[in-house]
Amino acid sequence: MSEPRKEKCIWCAGDDGALTTVEVPVDTEIPAGEPRLEEVAVHPRHRSEARDYCFEAARYVKRDFFIVIGMPVLVAAAIPLGQLLAGPGGSERAWSIGIIGSLLALNGAYVIRFPHAYTPRRMSLLIGGLKRGRQIVRLGGVAGTLFGLAVLALAFA
Ligand SMILES: [Zn+2]
């Protein structure tokens, strides 16, 4: 009982109307690797958006990777850094919490600005289009930013 799989637009996941193809990097290897280009189905009206989004993710893959790796390292460094910045008589705890909150908020803001997908085809299939996937990644960024700000507020509590 298998129905013939109908091609869906990678951007909106719609299968209405005429679809064309666009060549985009799929499954970009992290951290490096040449992006592998593949043809995917897309509405003509979504072609340039889908293309720009996929190529941007491939272009920033290294930077994004270092930020993802670097963030926990910086968070771990927040404790000795807090001790250093607090100085004698200062609150190490407040400084450390403040640094961690700031980092989480910045990380969230980065994700809002660069809501990338490295496996756009997979993301599109799973979530129902890259457009929706990008919104979900952005929502994650908003949640991360709010969480970071809440942690930051603890530093002043
Ligand atoms: Zn579409």
Give an account of the 3D structure:
- This protein has a two-stranded antiparallel sheet with strand order 1-2.
- It is built from five helices and two strands; from the N terminus they run E-E-H-H-H-H-H.
- By secondary structure, the chain is mainly alpha-helical.
- It has one domain.
- Helix 3 runs antiparallel to helix 5 (130-155) and helix 4 crosses helix 5 (130-155).
- The model has no long low-confidence stretch (mean pLDDT 89).
- The structure holds zinc ion.
- Residues 9, 11-12, 14, 43, 46 line the site of zinc ion (ZN).
- Zinc ion binds next to loops.
- How much beta, percentage-wise? 5-15%
By DSSP, the count of extended strands is: 2
SS content category: mainly alpha
The number of domains is: 1
Instruction: Give the end-to-end Cα distance, rounded to a whole number of Å.
Output: 61 Å
Radius of gyration, CA atoms, in whole angstroms: 20 Å
Task: Outline the biggest β-sheet.
Answer: 2 strands, antiparallel
* SSE topology string: EEHHHHH
The hetero molecules present are: zinc ion
Poorly predicted runs of 5 or more residues: none
Number of helices: 5
Helical percent range?
Answer: 55-70%
Report strand order across the widest sheet: 1-2
Shape from CA axes?
Answer: elongated
Mean pLDDT, all residues: 89
Task: Give a short overview.
The chain has five helices and two strands; from the N terminus they run E-E-H-H-H-H-H. The protein is mainly alpha-helical and 157 residues long.
Summarize the helices and strands and which ones pair or pack:
Blueprint: E1 20-26, E2 36-42, H1 47-59, H2 61-86, H3 92-113, H4 120-127, H5 130-155
Antiparallel strand pairs: 1-2
Helix pairs in contact: 2-3, 3-5, 4-5
Zinc ion binds at residues 9, 11-12, 14, 43, 46.
